[in-house]
Amino acid sequence: MDITFKDVSYIYQANSPFAHSALKDLSFHIPSGSFVAIVGHTGSGKSTLLQHLNGLLTPTKGEVRIGDFHINSDKKPENLKELRSRVGVVFQYPEHQLFDETVEKDIAFGPKNFGVSDTEIAERIRDIIPAVGMDESLLERSPFDLSGGQMRRVAIAGVLAIKPEILVLDEPTAGLDPRGQLEIMDMFYTLHQERNLTTILVTHSMEDAVKYADHVIIMNKGTKYMEGSPE
Ligand code: ATP
Ligand code: MG
């Protein structure tokens, strides 16, 4: 699915004294299968932008198109659930959304919610566990008993288990040690390459943007400052 932003503006708490314009007339196009990095200072609107990709936010003005889904100021797409089964989002510190269940149940939560059968979920988990560099022996443990890096992998596995066509990553390596950061980024790159997964990465690391992405968008104060190839 291609992604198109057309003149998108977003105002938090519009029509209130606290109104804050977080995106201003933002336009760009991301072809299916790309690896795009979005960089920019804190507060430049990166997370706000990402939240439009699965219909969490609706533009105050303009339109967001994801494949055949149209998200505009009038409405969210009718089939929001289908959109969310096709756009997987790893939010900042995704492990905060895990439950004190078993790792297996935590990973199964998303696909179950989308009506995927138990046998299919079991198959997906077998496929994902090695892909995220996790040990199968952890499946019966509680994620709360694991290290920070392991918990992060569980949360990521939960998003991958949905089998999204587009993977949206909001600083997925924040707070990990340098080795964990490298392992996780290499994992995302491999997934992108091997599964032709469209990947949208928000990062503070220009190094990662240049290393992994084929296209970079630089945000500044809610607008697109620059975009192009990493070079
Ligand atoms: P960071 O790199 O720190 O994660 P960001 O680029 O992701 O920053 P956003 O979270 O998109 O930035 O925030 C953009 C702007 O919108 C900021 O000025 C922020 O204060 C404001 N903002 C974000 N969420 C809200 C909210 N719920 N209500 C009001 N303003 C908000
Ligand atoms: Mg952010």
Could you describe the 3D structure shown?
The chain is an alpha/beta fold and 231 residues long. It has one domain: Rossmann fold (3-Layer(aba) Sandwich), CATH 3.40.50.300. Helix content is 32%, strand content 27%. It has seven helices and ten strands. The chain has helices at residues 46-50, 80-86, 103-113, 118-131, 148-160, 178-195, 206-212; strands at 3-12, 20-30, 35-40, 61-66, 69-72, 87-90, 166-170, 198-202, 215-220, 223-228. Strands 6-7-8-3-9-10 form a six-stranded mixed beta sheet. A hairpin with a 7-residue loop joins strand 1 and strand 2. The chain starts with a strand and ends with a strand. The model has no long low-confidence stretch (mean pLDDT 95). The structure holds adenosine-5'-triphosphate and magnesium ion. Adenosine-5'-triphosphate (ATP) binds at residues 12-13, 20, 22, 40, 42-48.
- CATH homologous superfamily assignment: P-loop containing nucleotide triphosphate hydrolases
CATH topology: Rossmann fold
- Using only CA atoms, what is the Rg? 18 Å
**Elements, N to C (H/E):** EEEHEEHEHHHEHEHEE
Low-confidence stretches: none
